[in-house]
Amino acid sequence: xxxxxxxxxxxxxxxxxxxxxxxxxxxxxxxxxxxxxxxxxxxxxxxxxxxxxxxxxxxxxxxxxxxxxxxxxxxxxxxxxxxxxxxxxxxxxxxxxxxxxxxxxxxxxxxxxxxxxxxxxxxxxxxxxxxxxxxxxxxxxxxxxxxxxxxxxxxxxxxxx
Length: 161
Fold this sequence. Notes:
Elements: H1 2-6, E1 14-15, E2 19-20, H2 21-53, H3 57-61, H4 63-89, H5 92-115, H6 122-154
Antiparallel strand pairs: 1-2
Helix pairs in contact: 2-4, 4-5, 5-6
């Protein structure tokens, strides 16, 4: 309610323009869960490789950034599980929790990316902007799902005898 009073947010009726909204979001959430698990595993293996090799001073200087990335991915993993539960149970509060988390994480992630942008290459910059666009799209999808659920809950049918 607070967001809609400040800006006019478009309401999407389909996920990726072809799937029903709820089923598309569930599919996206499971895909994101698997992807974050794979990336977290790869980064964990890379961190352990860096700590055990201790050869390159450049690689060791990456360690704090990698730990921040792992922490963010674990938090996203947990809250993606919350989103999956919310979508299956049609639980409005959990969906709002994930929406606010996704907005905050997108802003923090973008600011963090700008802070380390000096060291980034063109490919990494593209990935940062691509991730931001995907996050904005997911935020719009979740917002649309919340609005749809609120709208559907306000309609009540009475049966006259």
